[in-house]
């Protein structure tokens, strides 16, 4: 079984796997439109994490993990809790295209997608509003800023040829807001 990750799974799968491949799926765009009240946020201050939006001309880069034998049941049980129960994600099968030049045919992979029907779905917002929400959110897995920056780093280092305007626009908005927050905190300490 292959499992495709496009958010925190790219750097922290949390399950045993046999192999991993960087690549992409077609027909979807990655969006910070899913709320998170456990891993990267709280009930009072939900974080923003990614989901996929159907988009026929787009592709989303990430990592596919191959699980075999006893790894299958353990990984699916873990992901069901992490993504479906705690995250509100549904599963779909997609065609994964490995990055390797001599790659074979596309591989069928399982992917977790949060739909607008789940209670944690936040939907669209401006890059500045999403960045502002990320800055103030933190959960059991760490600060929401870490989630955004690790995802941007993954794209930069493993998929430098790929574009993800939404992701990098939010990163830019976050970086432009952070000095203002630092100066505000510093001036509060002086008074």
UniProtKB/TrEMBL annotation:
<keyword id="KW-0053">Apoptosis</keyword>
<dbReference type="GO" id="GO:0006751">
    <property type="term" value="P:glutathione catabolic process"/>
</dbReference>
<dbReference type="GO" id="GO:0061928">
    <property type="term" value="F:glutathione specific gamma-glutamylcyclotransferase activity"/>
</dbReference>
<dbReference type="GO" id="GO:0016740">
    <property type="term" value="F:transferase activity"/>
</dbReference>
<keyword id="KW-0834">Unfolded protein response</keyword>
<protein>
    <recommendedName>
        <fullName>Gamma-glutamylcyclotransferase</fullName>
        <ecNumber>4.3.2.7</ecNumber>
    </recommendedName>
</protein>
<dbReference type="GO" id="GO:0006915">
    <property type="term" value="P:apoptotic process"/>
</dbReference>
<comment type="similarity">
    <text>Belongs to the gamma-glutamylcyclotransferase family. ChaC subfamily.</text>
</comment>
<keyword id="KW-0808">Transferase</keyword>
<keyword id="KW-0333">Golgi apparatus</keyword>
<dbReference type="GO" id="GO:0005794">
    <property type="term" value="C:Golgi apparatus"/>
</dbReference>
<keyword id="KW-0524">Neurogenesis</keyword>
<dbReference type="GO" id="GO:0006986">
    <property type="term" value="P:response to unfolded protein"/>
</dbReference>
<dbReference type="Pfam" id="PF04752">
    <property type="entry name" value="ChaC"/>
</dbReference>
<dbReference type="InterPro" id="IPR006840">
    <property type="entry name" value="ChaC"/>
</dbReference>
<dbReference type="GO" id="GO:0005829">
    <property type="term" value="C:cytosol"/>
</dbReference>
<dbReference type="GO" id="GO:0003839">
    <property type="term" value="F:gamma-glutamylcyclotransferase activity"/>
</dbReference>
<keyword id="KW-0914">Notch signaling pathway</keyword>
<keyword id="KW-0456">Lyase</keyword>
<comment type="function">
    <text>Catalyzes the cleavage of glutathione into 5-oxo-L-proline and a Cys-Gly dipeptide. Acts specifically on glutathione, but not on other gamma-glutamyl peptides. Glutathione depletion is an important factor for apoptosis initiation and execution. Acts as a pro-apoptotic component of the unfolded protein response pathway by mediating the pro-apoptotic effects of the ATF4-ATF3-DDIT3/CHOP cascade.</text>
</comment>
<dbReference type="GO" id="GO:0007219">
    <property type="term" value="P:Notch signaling pathway"/>
</dbReference>
<dbReference type="GO" id="GO:0007399">
    <property type="term" value="P:nervous system development"/>
</dbReference>
<dbReference type="InterPro" id="IPR013024">
    <property type="entry name" value="GGCT-like"/>
</dbReference>
<keyword id="KW-0963">Cytoplasm</keyword>
<dbReference type="InterPro" id="IPR036568">
    <property type="entry name" value="GGCT-like_sf"/>
</dbReference>
